[in-house]
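Supplementary notes for students who missed Thursday's class. We covered one full example, reproduced here. Read the sequence, then the structure, then the short commentary at the end.
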Amino acid sequence: MLNEKVEKTRSLTGCFAVLAGDLTITTAAVLGIWWTRDTRDSVAILSSAFTAVSSMTTAYFGIKGISNTAPRAVHVVSPKSGE
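Structure (token representation):
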């Protein structure tokens, strides 16, 4: 029961951190486009922001997926006593 609450809190906290980072990057990109108002600069800003957001989000979900799967995939066999 306690372990389930801890995992849920970790998941929500990690997801919140990723969403806050994505929002920050998006805000910076929008402000950068608004300030420059140049098409070539806008393309560079948008592609960089897209790369940063997608990389961070993919990394979070990849690491979270592996960390959720790992305990079930690894079976720890304790040695028999006396052997």
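Commentary. The chain has a mean pLDDT of 85. The radius of gyration is 21 Å. If anything here is unclear, bring it to office hours.
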